[in-house]
Amino acid sequence: MERAEMMNLLYSEKEKNEDSRLTRNRHGQLEYLTTMNYIHKFVPSESKILEVGAGTGRYSVALAMEGYDVTAVELVGNNLEILRRNAAGLENITSYQGDAEDLSLFADNSFDAVLVLGPMYHLFEKAEQHRALDEAIRVSKPGGVIMVAFLSVYSIMYNNYLLGNFREGIEENFDADFQVRHFTEQWFTGFDIKEFEELFSEKPVQKIALAGTDSVLELAEKAHVMHLSDEDFQLFSEYHLKTCEKRELLGTQTHLLYICRKIGRL
User: Does domain 3-262 have CATH number 3.40.1710.10?
Assistant: First the structure.
């Protein structure tokens, strides 16, 4: 099955309601809060932003409402329709259907910031991963900020298989020597952190930060052991924002955010 077909199937299922993913539970809320915190920290107001893999526009629409000049690209037609409905009435957001691997709609050095907050979950081959990163770097202005989200393979094991069929998880995500593998029959793919960092090793970027965005809350919620009140969730969020770059905590988090700055040309 082609990737575009897989993505349309995945995100068209009712239970995969992407529009509420970042609001319907605590780990989604924390992921959104943390990502927005880093956007506000590194992307000046009124910047020209490209979001690649914008989903239903949860970030793009919010940023446009804050005054940023936003361009959104989304592969899945159903998501794009929802994004456009959510953006109705906003004049500073434009949207296109497109793929992270091909941003030929846009010229080199066009955007102050490029957000890639979903495509790396679904790119299995190294060549695909590099094409998506190279395109994000190409369309970023020199000095522009690039933020790329990815999944921890170890957190995938905890969240999806520790509470289910652990043997199946091992067989799907690792080879016989427990080295991470990516294969196209998966809906999502996860990375070892060092493996992901090495994707950038010869690219014209300078690393700014690497942060986890949702702590251990997905596992806690799936195991039904997370009972934070609104007040305690606020306190946990403050704690998380102060500790989310600690190396020793990164692999336990489902979603991670690699932040870098373009320092040259491809």
Answer: no
